[in-house]
């Protein structure tokens, strides 16, 4: 296990919306504002210019920590020996009450593997000051990969989603496992940025830590080539945080995929009381996948389905897709929400053992 130095990332630009200050999933901004516009929660606020300068200086001064404590993994693969490495937050974080997408200085880590590896699975868990799993669900989401997860709006208002080599987890998808034969390649030249984020919907400061386990095959141990996987995030809204009034509500956005290939895995980032999230191929007028949330005996959100397929769903460059989210809010007040899909795909121009980069373009959409 390694507890590395911190990686400080700049925040994406915040925007004032009808529901208060909102922010993208991957922005590095500490929650610092409470008000009725944010339904009683602490909404992300602005970082001062001096703080940004300090974060930039810290980022340049820090070198990536090497992940070297490889251990045997319980996972097996016909493609090679599977190993794992554990990552932890450097210390217990004091998560502020009523905070959303919370992270404090020192919790975002800049890591690197000492050699080329292929990530095939990823899992996370949260622990409290006693080392146990807390009863409350404090996990918002985490990312691990070669870049910060982000979506940017172009001059025409369309959202541009960057192609990444990133794995994720969230409160209702604590782990992900790519189909056999596929992996996300990180070389010794690639940074592996780890971004753990918390939600604290209670009224008390809570001290929490997070642990992640990365399962991978060393490229030197491959018995046969793996197919490279890339990922993008497509969300129903940018910035990603919004608030849902009482009752059942849908929100959607369309996007274009600009590559030929196949989708092999999809997982959603959602908040409590999400009913479902869908990906539709608008060009073909067909449903690609509908993930439904799972509830416990109390009717609370307890999990979310994922899409996983070795055969995959064929993508043709230029086709239009839609991501659609449905929330069913049983409360008398607004609830916080995010709704995005991480799409993991192979590219026809990236044969086993190598790959190229690309991007998608998204814009607000309407249900077909």
Q: What's the gist of this structure?
A:
This protein has one helix and 32 strands.
Describe this structure in words.
With 368 residues, the chain is mainly beta. The protein has one domain (15-364). The chain is built from one helix and 32 strands. It has one helix at 49-61, and strands at residues 15-17, 20-22, 31-34, 42-44, 65-66, 71-72, 82-88, 93-95, 99-102, 109-112, 117-127, 139-145, 151-153, 159-162, 166-170, 175-177, 182-186, 192-200, 206-218, 227-228, 230-235, 242-244, 247-257, 261-270, 274-281, 286-295, 301-304, 307-315, 319-329, 335-337, 339-347, 359-364. Strands 6, 7, 8, 11, 16, 17, 19 and 20 form an eight-stranded mixed sheet that branches. An eight-stranded antiparallel sheet has the order 13-14-32-23-29-25-26-27, with no helix packed on it. Strand 26 (286-295) and strand 27 (301-304) form a beta hairpin. The longest helix has 13 residues, at 49-61. It is globular and about 55 Å long.
Topology:
Elements: E1 15-17, E2 20-22, E3 31-34, E4 42-44, H1 49-61, E5 65-66, E6 71-72, E7 82-88, E8 93-95, E9 99-102, E10 109-112, E11 117-127, E12 139-145, E13 151-153, E14 159-162, E15 166-170, E16 175-177, E17 182-186, E18 192-200, E19 206-218, E20 227-228, E21 230-235, E22 242-244, E23 247-257, E24 261-270, E25 274-281, E26 286-295, E27 301-304, E28 307-315, E29 319-329, E30 335-337, E31 339-347, E32 359-364
Parallel strand pairs: 5-10, 17-20
Antiparallel strand pairs: 1-2, 3-4, 6-7, 7-19, 8-19, 9-18, 10-18, 11-16, 11-17, 11-19, 12-15, 12-18, 13-14, 14-32, 21-31, 22-30, 23-29, 23-32, 24-28, 24-31, 25-26, 25-29, 26-27
């Amino acid at each position: 296990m390694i507890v590395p130095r911190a990686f400080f990332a700049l925040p994406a630009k915040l925007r004032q919306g009808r529901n208060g200050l909102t922010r993208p999933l991957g922005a590095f901004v500490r929650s610092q504002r409470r008000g009725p516009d944010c339904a009683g929660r602490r909404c992300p606020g602005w970082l001062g210019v001096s703080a940004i300068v300090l974060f930039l200086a810290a980022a340049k001064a820090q070198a990536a920590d090497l992940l070297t404590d490889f251990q045997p993994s319980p996972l097996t693969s016909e493609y090679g020996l599977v190993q794992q490495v554990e990552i932890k937050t450097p210390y217990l974080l004091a998560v502020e009450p009523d905070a959303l997408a919370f992270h404090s200085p020192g919790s975002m880590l800049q890591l690197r593997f000492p050699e080329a590896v292929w990530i095939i699975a990823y899992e996370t868990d949260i622990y409290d000051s006693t080392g146990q799993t807390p009863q409350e669900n404090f996990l918002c989401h985490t990312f691990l990969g070669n870049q910060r997860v982000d979506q940017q709006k172009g001059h025409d208002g369309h959202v541009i989603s960057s192609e990444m080599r990133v794995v994720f987890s969230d409160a209702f998808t604590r782990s992900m496992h790519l189909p056999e034969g596929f992996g996300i390649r990180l070389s010794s030249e690639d940074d592996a940025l780890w971004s753990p984020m918390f939600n604290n919907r209670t009224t008390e400061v809570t001290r929490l830590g997070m642990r992640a386990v990365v399962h991978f095959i060393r490229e030197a141990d491959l018995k046969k080539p793996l197919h490279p996987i890339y990922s993008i995030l497509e969300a129903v809204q940018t910035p990603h945080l919004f608030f849902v009034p009482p009752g059942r509500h849908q929100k959607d956005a369309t996007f274009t995929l600009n590559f030929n290939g196949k989708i092999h895995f999809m997982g959603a980032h959602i908040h409590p009381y999400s009913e479902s999230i869908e990906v539709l191929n608008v060009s073909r007028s067909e449903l690609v996948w509908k993930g439904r949330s799972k509830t416990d005996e109390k009717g609370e959100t307890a999990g979310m389905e994922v899409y996983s397929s070795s055969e995959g769903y064929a993508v043709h460059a230029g086709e239009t897709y839609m991501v659609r989210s449905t929330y069913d809010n049983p409360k008398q007040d607004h609830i916080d929400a995010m709704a995005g899909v991480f799409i993991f795909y192979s590219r026809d121009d990236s044969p086993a053992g190598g790959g190229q980069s690309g991007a998608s373009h998204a814009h607000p959409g309407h249900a077909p």
